[in-house]
Write a structure and sequence with these properties.
alpha/beta, Urease, subunit C, domain 1, 2 domains, 17 helices, about 35% helix, globular, EC 3.5.4.28
Amino acid sequence: MSQILIRNATIVAMDSSHGAAPFAGDILIEGETIKAIGEALSAGPDARIIEGRGKLAMPGLVNAHTHSSETFLRGRYERMPLEIWLLYAYPLLMNDPIGERLLYLRSLLLAMESLRTGVTTFCDDFFDPPRHDLDRLATVFRAYDDAGIRANVSSAVMNVHTLDALPFSREVMPAELQALLDFGPPMTASAYIDYCRSAFSSLHGKSGRLHFMIAPSAPQRCSPDLMAACMDLAVEKHVPFHTHILETKTQAVTGHRLHGKSLIAYMHDLGLLKRNTTIAHSVWVSDEDMRLMGEAGASVAHNAVSNLKLGAGIAPIRRLLDAGVTIGLGTDGVSSNDTSRIFDVMRVAGLVHSAAGPDYESWLAADEILAMATIGGAKTALLEQVTGSIEVGKSADLLILDLRNYPFMPLNNVAKHLVYSENGSSIETVMVAGRIVMENGYLTTVDEQAVFDEIAELVPAYLAEHAELERRNSTFEPVMAEIHRRATRIDIGLNRYQGDGAGRHLQS
C-alpha cells in the first residue's frame, strides 16, 4: 500500500486533544488513511516524502451547505432580498432543465474551485427542476468523482405550492399571475422515497467519498408526510436530513401565519429535530427554538456571507453554540456568495459577529471559527468519524500551506492568521482520501484550462436563455417585493439587540 510521509510540519489537528493549537510533527499516510502522527516517524522505502519544514498541515475544510445549481450565475445579482432573488436564480416559470453536459461542467467547476481553495468536502443541495432524475443525479456524482472531492449530494425536494409557502401571496398576487403557476401534481412522499432508495442503491458510497443525503427544501415547502418519510430514511441510512429553516424575516412570519408557531417549533412538534437534522441558516430563531435544537442534537450550517448579501441578517451563533447546537460553515450557492471559498466565510464570520453586539466577551474566537470550518462542518454532514480533523484512522483529507507567505508573515497565532489573513493563496497541496488532488498550484485530476475553454464556448448560450427566463419572471417581482415589505413590518417577538442576534436587522 502506498505511503506518504509529511515530515517536520507545523500541524493544526483540530482533534479533541489539540484543537487549533499547533504542534510540530510528522504525519504518516497509508493508502487513504492517516496511519500515525508523531515525531521522527519512519516509512517504507517507496514512501513519498513531503518536507514539512516551514509548512502548515491542517484538515481539509468542509463546506457545510452549497448549491451547485447556481455555479453559472456568479456575479449576476445584487441588492435583492431572498424572496426576490429566488425569482431569478430559481425561477417560478422554468425552461427545460440544463443540458447534461452543462450539468456536468457546472458541478465540476464547483468542485474544482472548492479543491483549489482548500475545501475537501462539501454538501451540495442542488436544484434540478422539474423532476428528480437518477441519471442526472449520476451526472453530478460523476463530476465529483472525476474531480476527486468528498461530497454529500442531493437534489432538493418540495411538494407544497409556492403560493402556499409564502405569507400574503394569495392576497397580493393578481389572479392572472396565479394562473401562470400551474406546476402539475405535487410529488408524493412515496415517489420521492422510491427515488432516494434508488439513489442509495446505485450511487451512495461511490468511490468511498460520495454519498447521497436527503434534502427536503424547507418545512413550509414540504408536506408533513414527505418530511416524516425523509427523516425515517435519513435515520435508517445515517445521512443528514438537510433543510433550510428561518433564513429570512419572511420565513419567520410564515411559520406564525401557517402554524401559529415558529418553524423550528413546528419541526419539533412533528418529531423532525434529531441528530440527523442539519439546518441551513437559522437566522430568525428564538431562545426557545435554540433550546429545542440543542436538546435534539441538531446542526446548523452558518452561511455568513450569503446571509449578508441577501439581507437576511446575522444568525445568533454564540447563543446557538451555548444551546449545544453544532455549527458548520457554508458558502451557500455561488450566486448568493459569488465564491465557494470557505476562507472568505471564516473571515466574515469573525468580523460580523464582532459587530453584532457590545458584549465583546461573547464574540467568536478564531479557534471556534476554525472548528466550524473543519470538524464542526464534518459533524453537520455526519462525517465526523471520517474527516474534519487530523487523527489516526481518519481519512487523509489534508491541506499543506506555505507559512513563508504574506498571510503568515510574521507568524503570531496560526488560528488567527487562518481566519483573518489567509484566503487560500498559501495552499500548496490538497489531499482527499490520501490522493493528492492539487499540487504546486495545479489540480492533478482535471485539465482546468480545457474545462474553462469548454465553459467559455457553451455557457453564453445558456446564459442568454436564462436572461429571457429572468425577463419572464420579472413580472412577479412587485408581488415578491410587497411580501417582503409586509413581512418586515411584523413584530414576531424577537429582541433586536439580544446577544449576537443584533444583525437580524430587518425587524423594524
